[in-house]
């Protein structure tokens, strides 16, 4: 059972440590530590000030005792000059007691002075450490802030990269669909042009009309080619008979005589044909 409780305690401490790490800000901890060091430094300085104050009080007491000793010494001399040896002895006795007090105070004064020097040195060293910690603290805080900003920017860039990847896939899909629609439209145009599909708008030409347009275009090309050859001197000018034959071939086998309006002998008379709907 003890092993189970020990393991549970370790798990609890690990979970608690992880939670604390999540909510802990190193900058706040550094500021807190710096504040505590400043408080300790202030205590040391107050201790130095208290020792210095005690030393000053001893100095005042020593001066007062020295003045009293000098006063009793003067009283003893004055009593001896007046022939009062008993008064002189009393004055010197009091002076001796005051000198003993002066010796004790001087010993205490030396001890306080030594303690003050030690505390002053410790205060100076602590001040230097606090100043060094403050500089290091600010450096660490600046570095942490910069790292945090870089991490935030990196996360933003990563998010943008993911978004751009999704956008790239969407654009690729859009391009594929566009190409597919273009290919479909091109295929439909080809089918409409070939007559495989009917154009509901009625703009598609039937095979007879397309063939007549092709023949007309071919005749126009032959005439244009003959005209160009004539201009270049490569072919004689077409005669009226040739033109008439070309025209006769274009419009039909029957042709009227020039100027008479009658058909030639031996040729079948051209009779116009009408559809039953036009009669």
Architecture overview:
The protein contains five helices and no strands. The protein is an all-alpha fold and 279 residues long. Mean pLDDT is 75; it is low at 240-279. The protein is rod-shaped. Helix 2 (26-81) runs antiparallel to helix 3 (85-194). It has a domain at 7-157: Orthogonal Bundle (Helix Hairpins), CATH 1.10.287. The chain starts with a helix and ends in a 28-residue tail after the last helix.
Number of helices, where a helix is a run of at least 4 consecutive DSSP H or I residues:
5
**Which CATH architecture of the domain at 7-157 would you pick?**
Orthogonal Bundle
Biggest sheet overview: none
Q: Tell me the strand percentage band.
A: under 5%
> How many beta-strand runs?
0
Unreliable sequence segments: 240-279
Q: Helix/strand/pairing class, anyone?
A: mainly alpha
Helicity level, as a percent range?
Answer: over 70%
Elements, N to C (H/E): HHHHH
Radius of gyration from the alpha-carbon trace, in angstroms = 64 Å
Query: Which CATH top level class of the domain at 7-157 fits?
Result: Mainly Alpha
Distance between the termini: 119 Å
CATH topology of the domain at 7-157: Helix Hairpins
Q: What's the overall average pLDDT, rounded?
A: 75
Shape: rod-shaped
């Amino acid at each position: 059972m003890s092993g189970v409780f020990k393991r549970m305690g370790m798990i609890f401490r690990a979970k608690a440590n992880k939670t604390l790490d999540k909510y802990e800000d190193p900058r706040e901890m550094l500021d807190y530590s710096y504040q505590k060091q400043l408080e300790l430094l202030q205590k040391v300085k107050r201790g130095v000030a208290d020792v210095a104050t005690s030393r000053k009080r001893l100095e005042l007491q020593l001066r007062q005792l020295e003045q009293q000793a000098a006063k009793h010494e003067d009283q003893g001399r004055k009593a001896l000059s007046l022939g009062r040896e008993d008064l002189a002895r009393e004055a010197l006795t009091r002076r001796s007691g005051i000198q003993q007090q002066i010796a004790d105070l001087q010993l205490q004064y030396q001890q306080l002075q030594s303690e003050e020097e030690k505390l002053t040195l410790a205060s100076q060293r602590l001040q230097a450490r606090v100043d060094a910690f403050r500089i290091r603290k600010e450096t660490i805080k600046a570095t942490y802030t910069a790292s945090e900003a870089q991490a935030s920017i990196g996360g933003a860039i990563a998010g943008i990269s993911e978004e751009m990847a999704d956008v790239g896939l969407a654009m690729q899909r859009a391009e594929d669909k566009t190409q597919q629609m273009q290919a479909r439209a091109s295929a439909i145009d080809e089918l409409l042009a070939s007559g495989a599909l009917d154009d509901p708008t009625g703009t598609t030409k039937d095979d007879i009309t397309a063939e007549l347009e092709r023949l007309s275009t071919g005749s126009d090309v032959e005439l244009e080619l003959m005209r160009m050859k004539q201009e270049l001197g490569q072919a004689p000018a077409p005669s009226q008979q040739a033109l008439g034959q070309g025209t006769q071939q274009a419009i039909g086998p029957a042709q009227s005589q020039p100027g008479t309006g009658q058909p030639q002998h031996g040729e079948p008379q051209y009779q116009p044909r009408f559809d039953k709907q036009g009669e």
